[in-house]
Amino acid sequence: MSESTDNYLKTIYALSKAGEGFVTTNALSEKLGTRASSVTDMLKKLNKQGSVSHEKYHGVSLTTKGEKQAVEIVRRHRIWEVFLSDKLGFRWDEVHELAEQLEHISSHELITRLEAFLGHPKFDPHGDPIPDKTGKMPRLAKTFKLSEGSEGEDFKVISVDDSSSELLQHLDLLKIRPGVVINIRKLYSFDQSLEIIVSGKKHTVSATVAASIHVQKNN
Amino acid sequence: MSESTDNYLKTIYALSKAGEGFVTTNALSEKLGTRASSVTDMLKKLNKQGSVSHEKYHGVSLTTKGEKQAVEIVRRHRIWEVFLSDKLGFRWDEVHELAEQLEHISSHELITRLEAFLGHPKFDPHGDPIPDKTGKMPRLAKTFKLSEGSEGEDFKVISVDDSSSELLQHLDLLKIRPGVVINIRKLYSFDQSLEIIVSGKKHTVSATVAASIHVQKNN
DNA sequence: AATATAATTTAGGGTTGTCTAAAAATATGG
DNA sequence: CCATATTTTTAGACAACCCTAAATTATATT
């Protein structure tokens, strides 16, 4: 398992969670920043190793083995993110790229001890769940996107998409993070932008930003 | 700077400190576990990059640039060792190989914050000095090897060689670590082995083991 | 100093993971 | 439903880093 295969498995996992369980060559090429032909090569290799099942021209999906490997990488990534945020005080938009490097160290003992040192956290700084050593995710409350909320109601932030560092910096500025309560003051139907109240301050967010914030109703 | 070049620079640094300032191809080959021909290839590359000065058939030495790079790697390695030992509770014979992986992450910010989190340690768990961000080593007391000590005297352990994990496990068993006081009870001249007292317990150590323990006179 | 031995380098290859360009398969839209 | 556009794969190449085998240079012995 090289760093490269780690990245492929992790990305296939993320994309198949987001979509319909299988992932296209082009989608991987886009996310990984490598050419489609390189993706094909790697998929052949991962297929031979039994981590993915790949039928020519019809996308890939993770096998049970591959999913186990991917979840383990996600686990390492999220535990390191908690360390970087809680112990070293990195802003949450900074932790991702460092965790990308730390996640490749595969020592089981290291992660077990780090997890204990951090007090067995269940969620990373973005609110994403941390799988346990068997791969099981903590029980999740059902969430929806802030962009799907309606005017006047209060919502609690559960997690935010961690794909873009610019987005995270923007959310940080607005003090939007897991646990915070957001009130939807107004919904502008012409462009789906929202006027919201976060800890007493009024802000306007675009539909794109609102769609990256996962919330629950705050009763 | 790849992991491979990191390892070459670090090893050249360590060997030139131990010897006469330059390092032979074979010595590197031995330490790194690669063939001499591979070492030659890499030395050519590092020479072209300006990190070492390499004259055919006459060994290498680090340039100012290369030494700076090497010290930075040593710094990262030793800071991670402190983290693994102090915070995660790894035994000191376990920290080395994990630190070997962590040291390749080159974020300056990460190391700065980690160092502060650890309270700006000056020495790693083996007693080796940690260079500061400018590359300066903390002031060192002069030490000699326990094998050079004489009968009856007390010595304080300053550091131990961290090259072999078996050696470190052995020292751990005998409770020999930096700070501990050792009394030389007897010196067997036929094989240079020593009978020593460590925290009230009597042990016998070979000349090899004694040569890996760096001490000062304990007045 | 000549020769034997040891150390080092060169020559030629292999693997991994990437690339470009071209070919093949699939999807789409009149 | 067929021609065109898009997606994916194949073919061939390259850089990094390693290898073995052979050649070259340095060192040691007598």
SSE topology sketch:
The structure is a homodimer of 219-residue chains.
Chain A: H1 3-18, H2 25-32, H3 36-49, E1 52-54, E2 60-62, H4 64-87, H5 92-102, H6 108-117, E3 144-145, E4 154-160, H7 165-173, E5 181-188, E6 193-198, E7 201-205, H8 207-211, E8 213-217
Antiparallel strand pairs in A: 1-2, 3-8, 4-5, 4-8, 5-6, 6-7
Helix pairs in contact in A: 1-2, 1-4, 2-3, 4-5, 5-7
The structure holds a DNA duplex (30 and 30 nucleotides).
Task: Provide keyphrases for this structure.
8 helices; DNA-binding; alpha+beta; homodimer; Arc Repressor Mutant, subunit A; 219 residues; SH3 type barrels; 8 strands; 6-stranded antiparallel β-sheet
Notes on the protein architecture:
Two copies of one chain form a homodimer. The first copy, chain A, is of the alpha+beta class. Among the domains of chain A are: 3-62, Orthogonal Bundle (Arc Repressor Mutant, subunit A); 144-217, SH3 type barrels. Helices cover 44% and strands 18% of the residues of chain A. Chain A contains eight helices and eight strands; from the N terminus they run H-H-H-E-E-H-H-H-E-E-H-E-E-E-H-E. Chain A has helices at residues 3-18, 25-32, 36-49, 64-87, 92-102, 108-117, 165-173, 207-211; strands at residues 52-54, 60-62, 144-145, 154-160, 181-188, 193-198, 201-205, 213-217. In chain A, the strands form two sheets. Chain A has a six-stranded antiparallel sheet. A two-stranded antiparallel ribbon of chain A has the order 1-2. In chain A, helix 1 (3-18) crosses helix 4, helix 2 (25-32) crosses helix 3 (36-49) and helix 5 (92-102) packs antiparallel against helix 7. Chain A is globular. The first copy, chain A, binds a DNA duplex (30 and 30 nucleotides) through residues 2, 4, 24-26, 34-42, 44-45, 56-58.
